[in-house]
Specification:
Helix content of chain A: over 70%
Radius of gyration of chain A: 20 Å
Shape of chain A: elongated
Number of strands of chain A: 0
Oligomer: homodimer
DNA sequence: AAGATAGGGAACAGGATGTTCGGGACCAAA
DNA sequence: TTTGGTCCCGAACATCCTGTTCCCTATCTT
């Protein structure tokens, strides 16, 4: 029975993870090869495969901390600062602030340089949170629940990407305001567009 | 000077294109290798590279027809059936109907099996159309134009993907209604969610 | 019919992947 | 300190994919 993981192993894993982030920032996710990673981290080939099954697996490992951080933030925000129904989508501000703290990493992952794997992983994490919120809200039949879920997550990723790539100087709270406005009220009121009276 | 392209060449290009669609449907875009494609199409290796620079280039070629089809549809719809300002987002219904006609192809491209390349290509085509529409509408300063553009395109792709993968039996017009409602009015009125009175 | 043009296939070199096998560092027990 | 065990690590290998080169041959023109 082994409770604490070997220091050597931890060192190796951290080296691989750092090397991957560094390489993604330098040449993008798709273009980064396992060969590059083990060269940069200076570890052996089989060492890599002893820890991860491939490039994708290594990337996923980095999201564990995101999930726990986000859960903490959600739980500390939710009960006090925001009353249910009047303050929906509690995950968004926590996530924007999390991204603000790890801007380089996020930019490496969600931008054009970060691959589809990272985005789909973030999507999975976010879907969990949004799904929990949606399940407590009554819905009418116009928009199926699953579609609403996907819509919210996509909108969030869109705002996040736009923020990091175009307007990184904006404050997380300002970006969060835009996100909430778009998702809850749409673009109708801010463009003069009208929906047809069916 | 050669006006008409060689029949042999056209035959080869079509064979490669069909093979790729078939393989994407069978095992996904990322997993499909050039080796697979030329085996399936039964053409030589150098023949492939004589026509395309790689897998990505082959995929992009298939979108030329989409762009022209979509332009035609937009131009025939726009002037009569929809008056500006009261019927925004003229591209959407045409695109949904286009997707309805090529369901297999679209499903192969936008689903989980289709890669990021296809999605980003569709995004490019759509962005052109939405950008043209947005440029004719006055905006207030709450939501930057570029963000609104990305938001609309993402929402469209989300609805399109959800439709093809979850509810393919729905009519294009019904899906279009949902899309327009989400983009223009948001989810606020259909969930009971409210935005904070800032 | 015969030369010119251009598409098609075999083969090759370079590189990435994932596995195997043995050496050796770290840890616990005596 | 020694001894045995565990498991991390790296060199080397077979396999596969990629992109290019070279030559053959089908098609077109005169």
């Amino acid at each position: 029975m082994k409770k604490a993981i070997d220091r050597r192993a931890a060192r190796t894993r951290r080296a691989l993870h750092d090397a991957m982030i560094s390489l993604i920032l330098r040449k993008g996710y798709e273009a980064t090869t396992i060969q590059d990673i083990i060269d940069e981290a200076d570890v052996g080939r089989s060492t890599f495969y002893a820890h991860y099954t491939g490039k994708e697996d290594l990337l996923r490992g980095g999201f564990e901390r995101l999930r726990t951080d986000l859960t903490e933030a959600r739980d500390s925000y939710s009960p006090r600062r925001r009353a249910r129904r009047s303050e929906p989508l509690v995950f968004s501000l926590a996530m924007f602030q999390h991204a603000d703290g790890y801007k380089d990493v996020y930019r490496a992952l969600v931008g054009r340089r970060g691959g589809a794997v990272a985005v789909s992983e973030i999507r999975r994490v976010l879907s969990e949170f949004v799904r929990q919120e949606l399940s407590t809200v009554e819905r009418n039949g116009a928009i199926p629940r699953e579609l609403a879920l996907q819509f919210i997550v996509s909108a969030f990723l869109t705002v996040l990407t736009w923020w990091l790539e175009r307007k990184p100087e904006l404050a997380p709270t300002a970006v969060d305001e835009m996100f909430r406005r778009l998702v809850i009220k749409g673009i109708g009121s801010s463009t003069g567009l009208r929906v047809r009276s069916t």
